[in-house]
Amino acid sequence: MRNKIFMAALVVALAWGLEQVVVSPLQTGNAYPEYSSLRSDPMGTLALYESLGQVVKVERLYKSRMRADPGPGTTIFVLGVEPVAWAKLKNDTLKEYEELTSKGARLVIAFLPVSEPWKDSEARPVEARWHIRFTYKNLHAEHGEIPRESALELRPGAEWTKLAEGAFERKLGNGSVALVSESYPLSNEGLREERNARLIAKLAGAANKVVFDENHFGVVETGSITKLMRKYNLEGALAVLALVAGLFLWRSASSLLPSRAPGAEQAVAGRNSLDGMVALLRRGIAEKDLIRVCYGEVQKKYSVDANDPLFDEKNPVIAYKKLMEKL
Known about the structure:
By secondary structure, the protein is α/β, with parallel strands linked by helices.
């Protein structure tokens, strides 16, 4: 009984562990980086994705932006970008951004909240090419689940228009680009605590389609089983399969039948050679022929005269006695 209770507890613990390690991160999106539209926790932007989906067509991009070929009326959200590294992008990368906007697309880049970097003396091509400076201030922000402020300060040139505090846009080719330093309002927690619908509408612009870039997070479309599970919400099916596998292992390791009675485990005595011989005689000689066969064997062994009227079929008892006398 104790073994069954232990195995049941082990299966429950296994199912719970699989749910925490495999299913729960997929459901909440904790397996994805901050500001991913696949996250439903405070650090994600799933609420922004679903909110915009109520008014325009939205989709996620799992491949390179250059392969997406966006046209006019498309706004691409690139969220959760590290500003210190992004400001040092080479001119070739900046030209790729400009190729997107030259087709009429709008590019929205929201940066992660950061502290003042220790050292940042490298050249910043974006400042010379797009005429916007990246500076940092001393910031002693309160530590919470998600930072609300960033040390980053954008100082735009005359080509830029202010959309809100820390958010600016400018025309670039046939399209436009918008940079956002304070990206907290775009997070799930920001939409819940400080909903700024006006800022979101300005960032989206006059779009008929909004694309959330997941490729820069490393979430790439590969055609794998994980992609199919995510697409068709099969995480629950995975949990059920894990539970069935646990029950199968439990069934293989422990019988569900009740234990035998104590006396049933005692050894069963076997037969000796005499019992075996009797069993062979019963199978090979009919009962009515037993005396005749025995008499025949006695004749062979003791050279008894074949004409000796020892055997009497009518009275086998007398024949048996006579046979014993001969022996």
